Amino acid sequence: MPRIIETIVTTINADGEAHMAPLGLIAEGERWVVAPFRPSRTLDNLRAVPFAVASHTDDVRVFAGCLTGRRDWPTRAADKVKGVVLEGAVSHWELAVETVTEDDVRPRFACGLVHAASHRPWQGFNRAQAAVLECAVLVSRLHMLPPEKIEAELKYLEIAISKTAGPREEEAWGWLMERIDAWRAEHAQKV
Ligand SMILES: Cc1cc2nc3c(=O)[nH]c(=O)nc-3n(C[C@H](O)[C@H](O)[C@H](O)COP(=O)(O)O)c2cc1C
After folding, report:
1. 139 C-alpha to ligand 1 centroid (Å)
2. I need a labelling partner for 172 at 20 to 30 A (CA). Which of 21, 32, 130, 166 fits?
3. What's the CA gap between 139 and 92, in Å, rounded?
4. Is the CB of 133 under 6 A from ligand 1?
5. Is the CB of residue 35 below 6 angstroms from any atom belonging to ligand 1?
């Protein structure tokens, strides 16, 4: 399996408007592949402006926020490419699309690293951060996964939250649970 890094990817459209979404960057030799599912704004933006910025952050509220309609996180202009960097990121990479492999489900944009910068020391991670990330992935796939699998995974992830979450992880988890509760209510009506 390739190594995949979970990052906050920012892209811009032809009018220069930025869009932020969590995406996994897939290692491929010296390059990083961005693989957005169709349809998505990240995909449209990469076609219009072939650059992406990957911000590495330990603030998991950004992952949970983007999945729950809270995308308005502060940014600043990137150093070398057209795009923006997440303020407060521990480090970031600026990427330029080199090749595109078309696919009906998930086109792949293989990117070269144009610039990398570190901004502050990484402070370590806890289990709750990983749990929020996993829960955010579940929330992005509610329409694809069987309900029993979602409920079983949530039960396990809650253990890490109850044991190790700080205020940021608690807040992120709360946003995700609002979304899960709405999905539960919707699902109960269908059954
Ligand atoms: C940790 C994490 C990794 C994700 N990785 C991907 C990915 O590689 N490709 C993708 O299409 N969506 C991925 N998603 C879901 C997207 O963030 C979400 O669907 C997003 O809204 C993309 O669509 P957009 O560009 O229209 O906003 C991921 C979500 C999370 C929480």
Report:
1. 10
2. 32
3. 25
4. yes
5. yes
Q: Which pair of structure tokens corresponds to residue 154?
A: 């949530």
Indicate the helix (H) or strand (E) that contains 190: helix 167-190
In the block, residue with structure tokens 């996180």: 73
Atom of ligand 1 nearest to the CA of 39: 26
Identify the DSSP state of 36: P
Q: Rounded to whole angstroms, what are the CA distances from 52 to 35, 93, 153, 160?
A: 12, 8, 31, 32
Whether residue 190 has pLDDT greater than 80? no
- Residue 152 tokens read as 């079983």
Atom of ligand 1 nearest to the CA of 63: 31
Whether the per-residue pLDDT at 187 is higher than 90: the answer is no
- The CA radius of gyration of the chain, in Å to the nearest whole number, is 17
Calculate how far, in angstroms, residue 27's C-alpha sits from the geometric centre of ligand 1. Answer: 17
Please name the amino acid found at residue 72: D
CB atoms within 10 A of CB 98: 11
Task: Label residue 107 by pLDDT band (50, 70, 90).
Answer: very high
Strands (E), 13-163: 18-28, 31-34, 51-56, 75-77, 84-86, 91-101, 108-118
